[in-house]
Amino acid sequence: PASDPELVERARKAKEALGDRLFVLGHHYQRDEVIQFADVTGDSFKLAQQAAARPGAEFIVFCGVHFMAESADILTTDAQKVVLPDLAAGCSMADMATFDQVEECWEALEDAGLADQVIPVTYMNSSADIKAFCGRNGGAVCTSSNARRALDWAFEQGRKVLFLPDQHLGRNTAVLEMGMSLDDCVVWNPHRPDGGLSREQLERARMILWRGHCSVHGRFTAESVDDVRERIPGVNVLVHPECRHEVVLKADHVGSTEHIIKTLEAAPAGSSWAIGTELNLVKRLAQTFPDKNISFLDRTVCYCSTMNRIDLPHLVWALESLVLGDVVNQITVDADTTHWAKVALDRMLALP
Ligand code: 13P
Ligand code: SF4
């Protein structure tokens, strides 16, 4: 549905009143009604870079999910305030790796005499304390647009990688981009004290994948790809690397949200595309490129419910509160966590 014109006007006025004091970031998975007010849109890598590049903005309003706002707080100055318009906008994948669980895993690797060979790498989609854990233990952060480069870096530092929390991104990058075999990867189950793995399996593995996944991308299946190929002859299937390995294997192209957009920009008019990523972005792409036939990979998969928590009423409330001098829903990360998470984030930002 079209945005409520009264709310649109209120958001516009509040943005005008705040001027250069305000910088609004919008992830590609945000609703249209919100994305229209973003000063910059992007994938999580681009948004982290952009947050770090605006030291002059007093308020960063982050239209995305909690771990992204935390990263923005870590990468901005102490004087800058980061606001998440709805605190319920979390991420189910990030919640699948808690600090205590990761510490337990690390202790088990220490007990097995393996920890000094292992470099922990966490996907951006994780809480600040997991990023800090990686920073403290010689590791780094990665996003879906630089996972390969981050893993190349990690294997220069050690012999094995503990990849958190998305098993699919880890497996897809290791097997499809780096030529490892599926046997090089094992999955650590955080609900078992030994991870559900024998010592021999841990010794043999090159990639120890955390048992986490995205509840949206994890719903695309190999059948989704077969069905769309049957429905749309000649279709190009383009999916995000958070999809399961068997889905990515069947697809024609794989890449981050930013990569998906660039691929469609360059695609010839009249070509057909089925996209396996979040629905807000796919709908927007279909509107942006009417000369291409763009459809959603599987019509039974729905929006990311937490991304969708950020709606126009919440954005208006956050902006109008700032105009009145009230910083609502500020996201702050404590100094020690910030220090070590920044070490891990800076290692990512320094990748060639
Ligand atoms: P990217 O923005 O890195 O492509 O990640 C997708 C995602 O699931 C963000 O929550
Ligand atoms: Fe988390 Fe998946 Fe939603 Fe991204 S799309 S915020 S990874 S649940």
UniProtKB/TrEMBL annotation:
UniProt enzyme class: transferase
Protein origin, superkingdom: Bacteria
Alphabetized GO MF terms: 4 iron, 4 sulfur cluster binding; metal ion binding; quinolinate synthetase A activity
Annotated Gene3D superfamilies: NadA-like
Protein name per the record: Quinolinate synthase
Keyword Ribonucleoprotein: no
Cofactor binding, per record: Binds 1 [4Fe-4S] cluster per subunit.
InterPro entries given in the database record: NadA, NadA_sf, Quinolinate_synth_A_type3
